[in-house]
Design goal:
Layout lengths: L5 H6 L12 E5 L7 H12 L5 E5 L7 H12 L6 E5 L10 E5 L4 E5 L5 H6 L5 E4 L15 H15 L10 E2 L13 E2 L3 E9 L5 E3 L3 H6 L7 E6 L2 E6 L12 E5 L5 E5 L4 H5 L6 E5 L11
Parallel strand pairs: 1-2, 1-3, 3-5
Antiparallel strand pairs: 4-5, 4-6, 6-7, 8-9, 9-10, 9-15, 10-14, 11-12, 11-15, 13-14
Helix pairs in contact: 2-5
Length: 296
């Protein structure tokens, strides 16, 4: 490292003009009602003033590590190479590790609770990982409730600004020892696919863990009806390309922006109209519906 204390890193931004900088992408569950996100921006701007900061999301459901991990995984392929700092950290203040990982894409900084694992795996895995323990890359603090400000943001910023190498942050750890995030896979049978709702977005669209290939493997065809069992009800819903192919208020099955099968309602909310929610099982089939439920 070229500086010797967390105070120096926090109070100065006068690095050599030739120092390379990298963009920093940020994801948290802090919301926007309080000052937390602004403070994170302030720390990043102080330590790495030339780095562009990209806000991925800050309204991840509080403490929902899986939701944060899926949002990061959906986003990472569209982010510029650089540094990700992600904080959805219900274990803050416990013995969970704070980590930084080197990948073919760049660096990932955050808690070792599964939040980073899917995105890191998607872009090729981690070549090296450290536990962030060096006090020189932390802000002085009297508590242990805001690691996003005191630990993760400074670590991400010094990496982005070229002020530190990964090894400067702390001791190396085995990449295979990181906490995985176990995401359920769909179950494909001869005539049905048993799925799970992974995500309901702010529009009420429900993304599942089913790919178009999974549906095609049971004989489902785009442009035709698909049988969708939700709880005790079976709906007959068309598999279409875009919302405009069904009438206003009608349900549809489509491939969403992440390439997965989703349920939607044109001009409405699939979660309300069809009764779906994150984690709920859904069964897709191609048989003739015994009970078709019109959606108003």
């Amino acid at each position: 490292m070229t500086r010797s204390s967390g105070d120096d890193l926090a109070k100065t931004g006068t690095y050599p003009e030739s120092m390379p900088t990298a963009p920093i992408s940020v994801l948290t569950d802090f919301g926007l009602d309080d000052e937390f996100v602004g403070v994170i921006h302030g720390v990043l701007a102080t330590i790495a003033p030339d780095s562009r900061v990209i806000d991925i999301a800050h309204n991840v459901e509080r403490g929902n590590v899986r939701a944060g991990a899926l949002a990061l995984m959906r986003s990472v392929q569209y982010l510029p190479n650089g540094v990700v700092v992600a904080v959805v950290d219900p274990g803050v203040g416990t013995d969970r590790r704070a980590i930084a990982a080197q990948t073919p894409w760049g660096h990932f900084v955050g808690p070792d609770n599964g939040l980073l694992s899917p995105a890191v795996a998607l872009i090729g895995g981690a070549s090296s990982v450290v536990s962030i323990e060096n006090p020189d890359v932390m802000l002085p603090t009297h508590g242990a409730t805001f690691d996003g400000r005191d630990l993760f943001a400074p670590a991400a910023a010094v990496l982005a600004a070229g002020e530190a190498e990964l090894a400067d942050l702390g001791p190396a750890v085995d990449p295979d020892s990181l906490t995985p995030l176990l995401l359920p896979l769909c179950e494909v049978e001869e005539t049905s696919v048993t799925a799970q709702v992974w995500w309901v977005d702010r529009f009420g669209n429900a993304q599942t863990n089913v790919s178009p290939e999974d549906l095609k493997s049971i004989g489902a065809v785009p442009g035709q009806m698909v049988e969708v069992r939700i709880g005790s009800l079976v709906h007959s819903i068309p598999w279409v390309f875009a919302y405009g192919e069904v009438g206003e208020g009608d349900p549809l099955v489509h491939v969403d922006s992440s390439g997965l099968i989703a349920l939607a309602v044109r001009g409405g909310r699939a979660d309300e109209a069809l009764g779906v929610a994150e984690g709920l099982p859904v069964v897709f089939g191609t048989g003739r519906s015994r009970r078709s439920i019109p959606v108003a």
